[in-house]
Amino acid sequence: MRTWTLRGATTSYVVGVPEHGFWAQLVAWGPAGGPTPVDVVGTEHFVPRADVEPLEYAVRGVRYTAPVDLVVSDPSGVDEFRPVFVEARESDDGLELEFVDVIRVVLHYRMVGDVVERWVSVRNDGDDELVLHRHDSAGFVVPVGNTVQYLWGEWNSEFQQAAVTLPRGRFTIGSAQGITGHSFSPFLSTAGDVAYGVQLAWSGSWEMSADVDTTGLLRIQAGRTASSLGRRLAPGETWVSPKAVGACSAGGGDGLARVFHEYERGFARRRTPKVLYNSWFATEFDIRAEHQLALARRAAGIGVETFVVDDGWFVGRSSDAGGLGDWEADPAKFPNGLDGFIAELRELGLDFGLWVEPESVNPSARLAAEHPEWILRTAAREPVLIRNQLLLDLSRDDVAEFVWSMLDRLLSTYDISYLKWDANRPRLDAGDARRDLDGQVVANLYAILDRLRSEHPDVFVEGCAGGGARVDLGMAARVDTLWPSDNTAPLDRLRIQEGFRTGFAPHLMSSWVTDAEGTHDGRPRSLDFRFHVAMAGVLGIGADLSRWSDDQLKTAARNIEQYKSFRELIAESKVHGLSAGVQYVGVRRSVVFLWKTGDGNVRGTLPNRPRQVPLAGLDPAKNYRVGDQTYPGSYLLQVGVEFDDSADSHCLVVDLVD
User: Which ranges of 483-579 does DSSP label H, i.e. alpha helix?
Assistant: First the structure.
């Protein structure tokens, strides 16, 4: 067998092609110096050898009874192809393994840190049109473990952690919504001292499956969901999949999260996140310039740096039933014009941010009347109405140009430094199922976001989709922050953020302080608790500041000032989960957040002892200052810091002193 080794920072990935050349297979994957081998011993009975080997990419016609990654048919009804290995190409950018039949299949590999990026390109080398019925990005064989962890949820309850153990059999998650979705995240991982994880970089419909075969070996498939009629591939045409990425860490689940965080920081523009205020929860659609300015004055007074006007700023928008698509500032809401309003914010020392939802349109909007052909619909069917809105057909080049031109006009006309891009409904209408609607929509979405970053590089972009319905690696590579959930209640949000951090870095985690009560856990928590939850990501304020007392405003100002002293560390550090919180570890400083999530001895009427919370990521041979005390690193790692009943949360700064 011919083999190739991709070497990461602490792990390696070994792939091989047997002498017969019918497939590529995983040889080993794991910590460098001793990657876990994958061997199949014994003789197969009743099924072909390919159905028990650890295949990297399985084509129907090579593999039959075990799950396959690529199914292609020709006009005669044949859906079995047997591409044979012809060439390997190695470069500084990675590895390519090429297999040829009527279809030419190229397996692409690139190692980034300890993350293996994989994708496939499929070319039609024949004379007839082919149809792709299944077209995954990759199949990742996981050398050890059969307990699969995943993230599930719904609106207001995203990123809930769960696991399923598969002695044998198959577990599948996905989205058929034309968007990543609230229900599941495109992320599967395994538990254990050595943890493995796979994510898919796609913001449309997708599917991921974990399959444990009869030998007990786990294999994870990841890819786009094919349409009901498949994806047509013309002679000479090449189709390229989105990337699937696999990661491995000897640090368990926490270490796996840090590997993904480091990978995602490679996309980041590494800009200091500014503290923002968003007026949505204070005003909803009732936007009046003077009211907004009154909120802005209070926001500036506590240290906020960016003021964001959310939904409702444009003509025809007094509820969710009108206005979408007509992106002109409402003169009734801004008598001095939007530019005049922005100038007044600037006088307060505030940057300006704006909410948009470019992909949708209300049926009553002027745009819908002027361009009915731009609305996504299936012939002879009324389009599906969700939240009083329809979708523009972003697969069309003229619609993509409209969206870009609208955004470019707003950002060029007004002094906007922050853009919140929302998407409040799924894509359900299929249109013509013979075309690759999902692929074209997502490609145009990505192209617009890439162009925004290129042509308006100073604009900070937040990705949002009715909460956390579009959180994935494809978006993480193109926006500055992501909105995990519309649920901002402290205990609910803490659980959501813990799930988010298993696959996504803190610099992506937009988090607000509001007065919201819990959807699932409504127990009261202090304002400090709420701030500490939000300070664990990119801090924002969304409460109605006009209702806050002077004491609440002072508490806010104190927390914002502290956050500004370490916000770069939050974005760049290594994250460690603790028994009662989370720790962000930098070179010379750590930030520790501790939260009381149980009922506890809330009135102090029972005998009790302070809780000790061991820390992580410190040098045991060095000393650290916590408050006005100095401790050996070994003490902090083994015994920890005290978490008493004086408050329901703490934010501690741990500084290296020698």
Answer: 490-501, 527-535, 550-572
Spatial contact of 647 and 528, defined as CB atoms under 8 Å apart: yes
- Judge contact between 29 and 14, C-beta under 8 A: yes
| Average model confidence (pLDDT) across the chain | 96
Q: What is the identity of the amino acid at 212?
A: V
Amino acid at 429: D
Tens of pLDDT, residue by residue over 582-627, are 999 999 999 999 999 986 655 566 777 778 999 999 999 999 999 9
Give the type of residue at 165: T
Task: Locate 164 and state its tokens.
Answer: 């399923």
The rounded Cα 41 to chain-centroid distance in angstroms is 39
The pLDDT-based confidence of 43 (bands split at 50, 70, 90) is: confident
Separation of alpha carbons 313 and 413, rounded Å: 16
Q: Given this model, what pLDDT does residue 41 score?
A: 80
Q: How far apart are alpha carbons 351 and 476 in whole angstroms?
A: 23
Indicate the residue type of 334: F
What is d(CA 257, CA 249) in angstroms, rounded to the nearest whole number? 9
Stretch 296-307: mean pLDDT? 98
In this structure, are residues 611 and 597 in contact, taking their beta carbons and an 8 Å threshold? no
Q: For position 610, what pLDDT does the model report? A: 79
To the nearest 10 degrees (0 to 180), the angle between helices 437-455 and 397-413 is: 20
- The whole-angstrom separation of Cα 129 and Cα 236 is 9
**The one-letter amino acid at 109:** Y
Question: Model-level pTM greater than 0.90?
Answer: yes
Q: If we measure between CA atoms, which residue out of 292, 303, 296, 301 comes closest to residue 329? A: 292
Distance in Å from the first CA to the final CA of the chain: 53
Residue among 317, 295, 289 at smallest CA distance from 307: 295
Structure tokens belonging to residue 88: 């390997």
Q: Computed from CA positions of residues 220, 223, 225, 230, in that sequence, does the dihedral angle turn out positive or negative?
A: negative
Q: What is the pLDDT of residues 234-286, one digit of tens each?
A: 999 999 999 999 999 999 999 999 999 999 999 999 999 999 999 999 999 99
* Burial status of residue 347 (CB atoms within 10 A of its CB: 0-12, 13-18, 19 or more): exposed
H helix intervals, 194-276: 252-265
Residue 452 DSSP class: H
CB atoms under 10 Å from CB of 605, counted, come to 7
Provide the pLDDT for residue 609: 76
Among all chains, which residue has been given the structure tokens 């007509």? 326
Residues 361 and 347: their CA atoms lie apart, in Å, by 34
C-alpha–C-alpha distance, residues 230 and 213, integer Å: 27
Per-residue tokens: 36: 């876990």
Q: Average the pLDDT over 47-53 and give the result.
A: 92
pLDDT confidence of residue 425: 97
Structure token digits, residue 187: 């992320």
CA 322 from centroid of its chain's CA atoms: 30
